[in-house]
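Practice problem: predict the structure.
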Amino acid sequence: MERGRGYIEKDWGRSFPSAWVWMQSNHFGTTGISLTASVASIPMARWRFRGFIVGLWHGGRLHRFTTYNGGKIERLVIDDRQVHWVLRNRTHRLEIRAPRVDATDLKGPSTSDMGVRVPESLSAAIEVRLCALAESRQSILFEGTGRHAGLEVAGDLRLLAGK
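Answer:
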């Protein structure tokens, strides 16, 4: 296959965060669109913070929404039915809805072994809306659903609800 798109990741460390959401899809109705998004409760010395990194490849451009570049979470609601996440950076707003579907428990690392069970689905659908922000109005740049998506929702999700 030539000119295909893929996804690869590498996790560092000895265990998973105490709570996280991760999702990814390359299968949108429009060719050339990809989304990867994650938010986690990240330990840092004696405290922890809610960190996130989201990238949407659209129109030959990577739209970044991250903790480290000043992105903001406007809303993050995780319940038994879905993940609803709204983010903003200086120029764009991104809304994501991911209905939670049946997941398979995969083995994950703890500090001593591979005893953690991580629920992951590879049959999720992720609804995405990207808007450009201009003064007091928004214009929709992209709206679509990513199919055959990976979705993990795990840990003490109350840790992600904070500001």
